[in-house]
Structures are given as C-alpha cells and as structure tokens.
Amino acid sequence: MNAEELLQRYAAGERDFTGVKLPRVRLLDVNLSRAIFREADLSNASLDWTDLSYADLSYANLKGARLGEAALTGANLEGADLSNAVFGQTTFKGANLSHANLRRAILTETSFDDANLSYADLRGASEFSIWRCKGAIFHETIMPDGSIRSEGTA
C-alpha cells in the first residue's frame, strides 16, 4: 500500500489499517481521524498538520516521524514508539500515551493536557514542559532528566 491508496481507502470509509507498513510515507495536512493504525510501521513518516484525533496508533512504530502541528486529541498511542520523533505545536489532549517511548523526541510547544503518560519514557526528550500538561496523569513516568514522576495529575 502507498499513501495514495491509503487516502482513497480512507475516503471510501475504510478505517482499519492495522499492521500497515508505510515507512517514510508523506501524509501532510490530511484527515485520518478515528483511523486504526495499530502496530503499523510509520517510521520516519511526514505527518505534519495531519488530523489523527481519536486514531488508534497503539504499538505503532513512529520512530523518527515528523508530526508538526498534528492533532492527536484523544488518540490511543499506548506502547507506541515515538522515539526521535519531531513535534511542534502538536496536541495530545486526552490522548493515551501509557507505555509510549518518547526518548529523544523533540516536543516544541507540544501540549499533553489531560493525557495519560503512565509508564511513558521521556528520557532525553527536549523542550518538554510540565506547564503544557494540565490534568495529565503521571504514574511511574520517566521524565526527560531520568527522574520518575508518580503523582496522579499535573
């Protein structure tokens, strides 16, 4: 499958793309809300300005992906690999990032309001701001400096 085929199938009403392999795909400024990309390979993908609200990206490989100004409101990213990904003004409001790998991610002006960051690994992530985590859940979360945070909500 390629980007064009995925977008055609999405436009036709298909939402389940479990296990799809699209490394380095370019899907810029498209609506993929509520799509299912469980265990998909989207490594090094360009997903800037893409709407992935309420999408299921659990256990997906998004290593090195670019998600500038992407909307991930309410998305399920449980166990996703977001290491080395680049985010800028990305919204994770209410998203599930439990057990997600965000090591060395760049989190410029990224919002985690009301997100679940339980057991997430943020070691080495840059530009993370606790001030952009209003109501976020922290339980055994590994913070960028390697410290462990477990205090319910921010």
Explain what the structure shows.
It is a single chain. The chain has 154 residues and is largely without helices or strands. It contains one helix and six strands, in the order H-E-E-E-E-E-E. The strands form three sheets. Strands 1-2 form a two-stranded parallel ribbon. Strands 3-6 form a two-stranded antiparallel ribbon. The N and C termini lie far apart (41 Å).
Residue windows where pLDDT falls under 50 for at least 5 positions: none
- SSE order in H/E notation? HEEEEEE
Biggest sheet details: 2 strands, parallel
Approximate strand percentage: 5-15%
Shape: elongated
Number of helices: 1
Oligomer: single chain
The first-to-last residue Cα distance is 41 Å
- SS-derived structural category: little secondary structure
SS elements, strand count: 6
Gyration radius from CA atoms, angstroms: 14 Å
Helix content: under 10%
List keywords for this structure.
single chain, about 150 residues, little secondary structure, two-stranded parallel ribbon, two-stranded antiparallel sheet, 6 strands, about 5% helix, elongated
Question: Would you kindly provide a brief summary of this structure?
Answer:
This protein has one helix at 3-11; strands spanning 86-88, 106-108, 137-138, 141-142, 148-149, 152-153. It is low in regular secondary structure.
Spell out the blueprint of helices and strands:
Layout: H1 3-11, E1 86-88, E2 106-108, E3 137-138, E4 141-142, E5 148-149, E6 152-153
Parallel strand pairs: 1-2
Antiparallel strand pairs: 3-6, 4-5
